[in-house]
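quick q for whoever's on today - can somebody do inverse folding on this one?? i tried earlier but teh output was garbage lol. tokens:
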């Protein structure tokens, strides 16, 4: 066979992360810059040129040698929290080494640097605090918001901003100012999985107080020591942030993370037409779950438009999944009301009914059922609802451990050949059911995905991989694509394009015993593919503003790949501090000079 011709050189890759880096720092200042620091890997010439003689041991090591040493140090920590703290310390010293280590051992380290261990780190933020990593905005100093954000760079310096108010963190609730750690953790995943440059991001926490009495009683607590401020003052605070972002960083993506139920949906709907913004709890969860459902439908030989779905837990995540299912069906040709008629939401009130009125959130209201259709049924019993609906899909977002009982699961299996059952609540102890039980109760017929990592399940001599419905396979690619094409906003069709592309990467399409979603070890390639789909859709809708986006998919893949940051040591090029860019002076990103 004749090999394919070499791809033409891509003429316009604004964020290309290759070649030498200009650096105006030297000596101790250089070693203290996490984005430039190479530690023992500085070459002999670099040590001379950047005045590092005598500041480092004489041996010059490779990045891989450093990874081996760092991994040994990591393994010497005896519990997940100690390892989490070790990794946070490494990141503040040497970003390349940190990301290279995690990339090499991602399967092992993912649950340490993110959920579930990161939730423990957030809960103990004020106790283990060492140095500030993030942008701290105070609701009492709203007139300072724009000036504070301006310190993080010029309009062309920032690509991605994650903001939280810390009210609903990773299944552990209100963590106040400690929520800054979820902003930094999400940005770690944006870099690790999506290749977003780590010095072109801002992690933000909006300190509005906290309703967590344990924190208020803690003398070490680092946030505002009063109950949460809500209402008009809160709304004005968030709006001040958004308007400042629009003014200072007009091409950056604003990512809302772990806001409370009453605010998450409201903020997304208020601002999504004003700037490119995204809510991972709502949209990211919706995308990754729909991708798993799409793959499961293919395995079960069913059409997506024929599926009936019950969602147990109708908060931000549950309503987000319902919305994405609805949008996916609409973009596939179904009418809006027809699509909604295939979705049943169940929450603390039981099956959501129109008669619940003001007890329903704005996100829940479109899915409420007419009371007359359920007069003779028990709407507070999940088993009875399943018996009546006969759903193909049962999703758990309730944080109610064990809610999918044997009776519930067996009732599902009575009505469909391949029940699709996703207990998604985090952390693991809050899962609605254990995967092993689901397989046993359905005679191995269920198609399962979970919200946390689980080992494979053996049933009747067969081994089944349990897919993790991990948002990290979705939001980094969506964010990367939105950044690279400089989209005006994140449209519903862009998210649907992400769903389809992610579903196409499912290992289960080739082997039904494999996972419904790609493994986290393959996430960078997946993110690249998702970014391509997002960019193509943005171009089609006229939302992309970047000049010179390649037209062919092959060239577009290369264009995206060239701009994905990689954890490798780049040559440092000495530049004068006079007239040097802020990047060259180490003044950008989380690891900027302080």
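ok took a stab at it. sequence:
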């Amino acid at each position: 066979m004749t090999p394919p011709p070499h791809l033409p050189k891509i003429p316009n890759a604004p964020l290309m992360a290759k070649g030498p880096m200009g650096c105006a720092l030297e000596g101790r200042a250089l070693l203290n810059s996490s984005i430039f620091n190479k530690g023992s890997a500085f070459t002999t010439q670099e040590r001379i040129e950047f005045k590092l003689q005598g500041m480092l041991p004489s041996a010059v090591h490779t990045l891989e040698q450093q990874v081996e040493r760092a991994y040994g140090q990591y393994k010497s920590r005896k519990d997940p929290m100690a390892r989490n703290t070790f990794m946070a310390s490494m990141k503040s010293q040497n970003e390349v080494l940190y990301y290279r280590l995690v990339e090499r051992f991602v399967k092992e380290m993912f649950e340490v640097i993110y959920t579930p261990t990161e939730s423990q780190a957030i809960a103990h933020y004020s106790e283990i605090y060492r140095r500030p990593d993030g942008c701290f905005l105070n609701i009492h100093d709203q007139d300072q918001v724009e000036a504070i954000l301006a310190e993080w760079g010029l309009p062309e310096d920032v690509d991605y901003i994650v903001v939280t108010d810390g009210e609903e963190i990773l299944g552990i609730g209100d963590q106040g100012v400690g929520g800054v750690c979820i902003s930094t953790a999400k940005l770690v995943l944006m870099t690790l999985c999506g290749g977003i440059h780590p010095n072109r991001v801002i992690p933000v926490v909006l300190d509005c107080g906290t309703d967590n009495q344990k924190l208020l009683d803690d003398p070490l607590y680092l946030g505002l020591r009063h109950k949460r401020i809500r209402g008009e003052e809160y709304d004005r605070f968030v709006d001040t942030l958004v308007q400042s972002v629009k003014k200072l960083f007009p091409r950056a993506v604003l990512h809302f993370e772990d806001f409370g139920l009453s605010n998450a949906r409201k903020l997304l709907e208020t601002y999504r037409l004003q700037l490119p913004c995204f809510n991972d709890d709502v949209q990211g969860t919706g995308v990754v779950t729909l991708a798993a459902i799409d793959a499961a439908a293919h395995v079960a030989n069913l059409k997506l438009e024929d599926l009936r779905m019950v969602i147990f837990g109708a908060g931000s995540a549950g309503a987000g999944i319902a919305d994405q299912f609805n949008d996916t069906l609409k973009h596939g040709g179904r009418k809006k009301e027809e699509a909604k008629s295939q979705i049943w939401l169940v929450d603390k009130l039981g099956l959501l009914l129109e008669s619940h009125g003001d007890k329903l959130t704005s996100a829940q209201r479109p899915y409420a059922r007419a009371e007359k259709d359920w007069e003779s049924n028990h709407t507070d019993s999940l088993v009875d609802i399943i018996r009546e609906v006969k759903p193909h899909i049962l999703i758990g977002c309730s944080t109610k451990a064990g809610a999918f009982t044997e009776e519930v699961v067996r009732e599902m299996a009575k009505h469909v050949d391949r029940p699709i059952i996703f207990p998604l609540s985090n952390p693991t102890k809050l899962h609605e059911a254990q995967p092993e039980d689901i397989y046993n109760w359905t005679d191995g017929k269920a198609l399962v995905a979970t919200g946390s990592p689980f080992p494979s399940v053996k049933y009747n001599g067969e081994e089944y991989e349990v897919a993790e419905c991990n948002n990290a396979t979705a939001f980094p690619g969506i964010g990367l694509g939105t950044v690279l094409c400089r989209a005006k906003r994140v449209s519903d069709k862009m998210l649907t394009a992400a769903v389809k592309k992610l579903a196409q990467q499912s290992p289960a399409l080739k082997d039904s015993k494999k996972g419904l979603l790609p493994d986290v070890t393959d996430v960078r390639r997946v993110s690249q593919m998702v970014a391509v789909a997002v960019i193509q859709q943005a171009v089609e809708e006229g939302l992309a503003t970047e000049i010179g986006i390649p037209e062919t998919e092959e060239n577009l893949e290369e264009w995206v790949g060239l701009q994905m940051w990689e954890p490798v040591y780049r040559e440092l090029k000495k530049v004068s501090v006079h007239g040097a860019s802020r990047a060259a002076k180490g003044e950008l990103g989380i690891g900027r000079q302080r």
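fwiw Residues 257 and 280 are 6 Å apart (CA to CA). also The first helix runs from residue 27 to 31. so keep that in mind when u check it
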